[in-house]
Amino acid sequence: MQPEPCSCLLEAPRTMKIGLFIPCFINELFPHVAMATLELLESLGCEVDYPLQQSCCGQPLANNGDSKGACDAAKRFTAVFQQYDYVVAPSGSCVSHVTHHYDWYIAEDPAYQQLKPKVYEIIEFLQDVLKLEKLPKPVYFPHKVSIHQSCHGLRELHHASPSELMMPYHSRLESILKLVDGVEVLLPERRDECCGFGGTFCVDEPELSTAMGEDRIAQHEATGAEYIVGADPSCLMHMGGIIRHQGKTIRPLHIVEILTGRGAGA
After folding, report:
1. Is the pLDDT of residue 12 over 60?
2. Is 190 or 248 the better-scoring residue by pLDDT?
3. 28 contacts 247 by C-beta, under 8 angstroms
4. Are 96 and 89 spatial neighbours (Cβ–Cβ below 8 Å)?
5. Reading across the β-sheet that carries 184-186, which strands appear in turn?
């Protein structure tokens, strides 16, 4: 009978190595969202690295027809992040650009094809990879929140069921907020309507973009919520600017701020 191997010689399980992708506007305007994402991943046992060589994913270049610039950005992203087990970001629109639109520019690059299935938006990653059923520490958030489903997250990352498909309703954001004590989750009347940001659309059509944002905020306010909660800071930024300009009391909040307990003082 063979003796049992010495426990000191058994190989310890390898820690999941995450490349943290922080889109440029989050780095400049919402560093607290980046820090909350880092804190959440590390609290769940992930080894997180923030490669300083990272830059813009190229979405603004693609939106404005700069195919060469968008291609260069895609190649840079692939080179910077290909070493990691997974790449995680707190921005649905940037992740959807990487996973759904890089094929326009570097579809034949084998390094990108290997990387693509490893790139996740943070809520996707928590639910699909980590299979999160409990937060690493209890979080109490005794507030009413209205869920904002951003367009890229809704239709490309399947954060929720689009109403036009006439299928049973589901929402990733609503589901994960069930792990938080005290929170009351509400939905606006038109649950998946665009806020009007649209990347460069808000620059090309500022009046229309603002009008759409005002309508969307009014729908969230009508729920009686104190916060508009979403997973895409670009939409929260757009609505937040209108809210501040008009002196409204409702506040935009990224969902990771709630999951880490950072949202209570927002």
Report:
1. no
2. 248
3. no
4. no
5. 184-186, 144-147, 227-230, 251-254
Q: Is the pLDDT of residue 206 over 70?
A: yes
Enter the pTM of the model: 0.89
* Amino acid (1-letter code) at residue 33: V
Q: In this structure, are residues 243 and 252 in contact, taking their beta carbons and an 8 Å threshold?
A: yes
Could you give phi then psi for residue 25, rounded to 5 degrees? -70, -30
Instruction: Please state the rounded mean pLDDT for residues 181-205.
Output: 84
Q: What proportion of the chain, given as a percentage, has pLDDT over 90? A: 71
Domains identified in the chain and CATH numbers? 17-129 (3.40.50), 144-265 (no CATH)
* Cross-strand pairs, 227: 145, 251
Of all helices (H) and strands (E), which one includes residue 123? helix 122-124
What CA–CA distance (Å, rounded) separates 236 from 94?
14
Q: Is the pLDDT of residue 182 over 50?
A: yes
The residue whose two tokens read 């880092």 is 38
Tell me how far the alpha carbon of residue 241 is from its chain's centroid. 19
Strand order in the sheet with 47-49: 47-49, 17-20, 86-89, 119-121
Distance CA 71, CA 74 (A): 5
SS3 251: strand
